[in-house]
Amino acid sequence: MPDRQKRVSLAIDLTDTEAWHLAQFLKRVTFAEFRSNAQDDDEAYGMRDASARVREALSDAGYAPR
Description:
Distance between the termini: 34 Å
Number of helices: 3
Mean pLDDT: 94
Helix content: 55-70%
Order of helices and strands: HHH
Structural class: mainly alpha
């Protein structure tokens, strides 16, 4: 398991369309999808929390679908 205290910074280049589609996906994905792809609830919650941070970064960049 990764070290939960270490911080990782990501820099990616997406097209406008890719950013919009990713923001749409992150808006629509539910805990059930995370849980079905996780080993247990803790991992699913971690996936959800990490995706929320990506969604926030997309929102800050102007990709916040309603």
